[in-house]
Amino acid sequence: MSTSTLISHLRQASKNAFPKISSLPSTLLLTRTASPILISKRALTSTASKGLSVVPGVNPLRQYSTPSLTIQNEKTNINQAPALAAVAQDESINDSSSQKEKQEKRISEIKDAKLIFNQAFKNVQDIHGRENMKFPKEIIWLMGAPGSGKGTHTPAILRARGITNPSISMSSLLATPECKELINKGMMVSDGKVVENLLHALLDCEPEVGVLVDGFPRSEAQVECLKLFHERMHELRKEFKHTPLKDFFPRPTFRICVLYVDEEISVNRQLMRGKLIQEHNAQVMRSGKGEIMEERVTDFDELLIRARYQIFKDHYSCLLKLSKIFPFHLINAVGSIDSVMRIILKEFEYQSSLELEHDTYEAISHIPLATKIGIHARQDLIRRLEHYCETEPDIFSKAVRFIDHEVSPMIARHAISGQALVRSDNTILSDPKIVEVVISILSERGYAVTMDERVHETPKRVDPKTFEIILERTHVYALNVRFPQHHIQPLEQKF
C-alpha cells in the first residue's frame, strides 16, 4: 500500500471516529521510518475519551511523544495512548497536588482549631463568667521527649522564675479511665477535652505569680489553640484596661521550653525507670514500709516507648512554629541533672524586655545594664589617665600630690581593716577633673573608691539690722576607699 493510500484511509477513519476534528492530518505525521509521530494534546485528549480506529495492515507505532511524556517501547501501539496519557498527567501534577493537599490540610486544621478553642473557651466562660477569666500573667509551656526529665527539672524552672503555683501536668488532668486507656494504647485524647480541662486548671491558679504547664501543646491543633489563647488574653486585657479589674488582666507572657534527648536515651531512661519502680514496689511489698509507686505500661514495653517518642518527633515541627512568636528555650537534657539545671537557670534569667510592659521598657532601656557597664571600664580608665598625663599635666600632678599627702597615710593606717574613710576640706576637690583623676588613679592601683561631698554651715555672726544669722559654709569631701582585707592569724593557732 502506498503512502498516499495509507494517509487517505487514516483520514477517513479519523473522520468517522471524530467528525469535529478536521485538523488531524496537520498534527499527525506518519512515515515509513521509525521517526517520531507527533499528536497534538487536544487530539490526544479526544483519543483518550473515544478511542482511535486503525486500518488493518498498518505497522505498529514505534514511538509516542507528547510535551510532557516520552515513552519508547517496541510493543506500544496507538490503542495504549489513553492509558499513557493518564499516567503522564498524574506524574506531572503529582508534586503540585501533594503541596496543595498539605496546604488544604493545614488550613483545615487551623479552622478546626478555631472551632475547638472557641467552643472550649465558651464552655469555661459560661461556668466562671467573663469577668472571672483571670489567667496567670506568665505561663511556661514545658514540653519534652519521653524520659527527658520534665518532672525532675520542673522545680528548677519554678525556682528560676519565682513561681509558687503548683505546676499543671496534663497527664494528671487527663487521668480519667477513658483517657488512660487511650494513652496506654499510644493514642491521644481529643483536643477539645484537653483545652477545656487546661483552661479550668489555669483559672484555679494565683494569677500574680505565673504557672508552668507540663505536656501542652502536643499537636498541630493544640499549637493553634495556644496562639488563639494568647490572642484571647490580649482581648481580655483591652476589654478590662479601663475598669477596676485591669490589674487582673495584665499583658500575657508565654515561654516555650522543650527538653530534648535522642530516641535511644529516651528508651533506655524509661526502661530503667520502669525497672527501678518495680524494684521499689517489690521492696515495699516485702518490708511493708513505703508507698507503692504507679507502674506505667509505657515504662516496660519498648514498642510503646518508641511509639511515644515518634509522636514527639511528629509534633516537634509544630512546636518550632511557636519559636517565631514566643520566647523559645530548646534545652539539651542529655547531661547530668546538675548540668541541665544550670542550663535551665541560665535560660530563665530575668529579661526585662520580655516581662515589662512595652512603654515601661522603652522608658528605661537607655540606662545601661549593670552587667554591661564594666565591660570596657579598664580600657576607659587607661585612656583617661593617659589623656590627663599628656594634655593636662598640672591637674594630673595635683591629683597625685593629694593622694600622696592625704589618702595614702589613711590607707596605711587602716591597712588591716580593708577600708579607709578619708575626709578633706582641700579646695582642689571642687574641681571635677581633679576628682576624676584621683578616683581613676586609685582605681588603677586596685582600690574601690566612692566620693561624697557635704556642706557644713557654721554660724558666724548676726546682722544687727535684720537680725539674720550669717552662716559660713565649708565643703567637706569624704572618700571611701576599699581594698582587700589582710587576715592575721593569731599566734596560738600556730601551735
From TrEMBL:
The record's keywords, sorted A to Z, are:
Kinase, Nucleotide-binding, Transferase
Q: Which Pfam families does the UniProt entry name for this protein?
A: ADK
InterPro entries in the record: Adenylat/UMP-CMP_kin (IPR000850), Adenylat_kinase_CS (IPR033690), P-loop_NTPase (IPR027417)
Q: Record's Gene3D superfamilies?
A: P-loop containing nucleotide triphosphate hydrolases
Cite the PROSITE patterns for this sequence.
Answer: ADENYLATE_KINASE
Q: Which GO terms describe its molecular function?
A: ATP binding; nucleobase-containing compound kinase activity
The similarity annotation says: Belongs to the adenylate kinase family.
User: What is the protein name for this chain?
Assistant: Adenylate kinase
| Protein's organism | Linnemannia hyalina
What taxonomic ancestry is recorded?
Answer: Eukaryota, Fungi, Fungi incertae sedis, Mucoromycota, Mortierellomycotina
